[in-house]
Specification:
Three copies of one chain form a homotrimer. Chain A has 267 residues and is of the alpha/beta class. The first copy, chain A, is 50% helix and 14% strand. Chain A contains eleven helices and nine strands. Chain A has a nine-stranded mixed β-sheet, sandwiched between helices. In chain A, helix 6 packs across helix 7, helix 8 packs across helix 9 and helix 9 crosses helix 10. Chains A and C meet through helix 5 and helix 10 of A and helix 2, strand 2, helix 3 and helix 10 of C.
Chain lengths: 267, 267, 267
């Protein structure tokens, strides 16, 4: 693979200039992190899960983030309304299949969403994505389990079958539309010691997809920025508590020079 | 306008001495911030949204904070029970019309609450308040949009029509009962870069309204303290992440001298 | 009482080595804290409250934590499913009777849970535990009120009657199975100035109960570690905001020497 030529800085600047509204139907554990990370990037998060308004709220947003972390049947129904509304207006829809592979309910509802509405990007960790791709793998709650088959092949096949982008986060992130395949090698081990980095990554992907029609480049750029900020935070923190706060600080103040020096994207 | 003569310090001391219970029916995004800011001021937050207990919990509280940030039909019904119970006992009820002007559902439910129970104070940002006052304005998710008409006139008219206090937060906060009008000029731009400052402001208003019958002076005092702490936090933070944590620190340790030196209240 | 001989360090090491999945049905206020503290200890938190999956998720976990902080009727039903599933597999079930003594609904539902499923450990503050034990006491929202009768007798009797362990947290924590009675004297006053320390304590107890069949020793060890970290955090923080973040830092980096020097457990 070669170093990829994506103008990460331009997209970050677009987010900061346009301050897009990012609508979420997400889980109750990390909703606070998701809202804060979107805000730290300069965008405007909103969360509205009532079926009476989830569609209208999606309409005024520039991206829709769905995360099944604490799903219920009613919540999934409201996601369908929001996504249907977003689909009609061409607003990108991002789905985090959080915990897929842990329970049958999560698997079933993830597939139901994928079969009912147009999802533009599926995001998960290795075992979540493998499960949605049909592999026989068990996710350890919401933490990734080992996947036997080649993750790049799994992701590429899922992307082709579902005609969408697939993002697999981990030590190296894989992003593919079935043909193109990018890898983001930024990030830090400390990200695995706090709750919410996976969910935040999805919200960041949504935030960047809100300002570009090239969703794969947008997603790669978002993850790259997020993970560079995590590297900077990890270098100065005293542990997972102060890491999280400094992560928001570094996202907020991230500049061109730092991105150019640190970005490690392959294509 | 002249410098207002409100004994902010005395009310802060009352909060710390009495440690009032502040009952909340609030949103799932910033519930954590709301609970923590009430606690940092020395009071005792509680959140109980089940209709079977929301009324009884309101009864043992000294103020009730309602926030429609992630409303559902059931949640609004439980708010009515809690507010009805608070009304009977003369416990002040504060309503944050979070996101009014973004969807029809939020507008309708805000008005339904105002028509059904006695709300003692309506709080919102400029476009939320303008919308509840009947202006044709669209809130950008939960972030304020520009309002054409004179905000002071809008707030004053709404206060008169609804026979309550209206609090509009922004760079300058406006608080009015229709006749008196106070302005709080404290605060810092960093407050706009984190999630939850608007919701926390409402919880702080509730906390101070719990210890004084003069709700407008209590609200002015609470906002002033909260925003002075924000100024102090902004001066020493490294960005929005550490700002939030230091905000809690400064609220906790806020003293008379600092308040007297920094308070900027007009009447 | 004498100094207790519990190998706290060994259990902490077990948690870090095994990284057990800790399933939660907990409240929306401190869910974020609960997830983060479990993660900081090296374990894997998961929260899944839908009745369709709460049982299956409990099955793949090593402990189940129930917390009624923001209970609803549906939520309690889902707790029963999760606990029933955990009971069948011998997975320990921890119940935080958060806010018992504040409303009749909380008392009734706590007792209903205790009568319906096997609870291995009941945890609460002084007035919550006293109320569940049948005392006539009113909890101040979710903050402890004074209890007239001897707390050790109350706890011991409740433990005998319910054939489970009872954990009462406070300045001195009391843990008893009805016969044995341990006291943990670690902790710091700053813990009372932030939201979530009580709920986190329960999640920590669950985390340690996941790696040992001796649930009382596990609970004592977990609380001791958590509270030593709180002591360290309190010594260097600037107030409740930075205290919380440093608490996570110190939990993460807690080492044998510090534990041995600071642990204050009596039996």
């Amino acid at each position: 693979m070669a170093k990829a030529k994506i103008d990460v800085c331009r997209l970050l600047q677009e987010v900061r200039n346009k301050k897009p509204v990012i609508h979420h139907l997400t889980n109750w554990v990390t909703i606070y992190d998701c809202a804060n990370i979107v805000k730290a990037f300069g965008a405007s998060p909103v969360m509205a899960h009532a079926p009476e308004e989830s569609g209208q709220m999606a309409n005024l947003a520039s991206a829709l983030v769905l995360n099944i972390g604490t799903l219920t049947i009613d919540f999934i129904e409201s996601m369908k309304i929001a996504a249907g509304s977003a689909n009609l207006k061409g607003i990108p829809v991002i789905l985090d299949v959080c915990g897929a592979g842990a329970t049958k309910f999560r698997d079933d509802k993830s597939l139901e969403l994928l079969d009912t509405v147009k999802i533009d990007l599926i995001k998960g960790n290795s075992s979540e994505i493998a499960r949605i791709a049909g592999e026989n793998v068990s996710t350890k709650g919401v933490d990734a389990a080992e996947v036997k088959n080649d993750l790049e092949v799994v992701a590429r096949t899922l992307a082709k079958n579902r005609r969408c982008i697939v993002a697999v986060t981990g030590k190296t992130d894989i992003l593919t539309d079935g043909l193109l395949l990018y890898k983001v090698n930024n990030g830090h081990e400390m990200m695995t010691h706090v709750v919410g980095t996976g969910c935040m990554a999805t919200s960041v992907i949504g935030t960047f997809c809100a300002v570009s029609r090239n969703l794969i480049e947008a997603s790669v750029s978002g993850l790259c920025c997020f993970e560079i900020a995590a590297e900077l935070a990890a270098e100065v923190c005293g542990g997972p508590g102060t890491f999280k706060e400094k992560l928001f600080d570094y996202v907020f103040s991230l500049d061109k020079e730092t991105i150019k020096k640190r970005q490690r994207i392959e294509c």
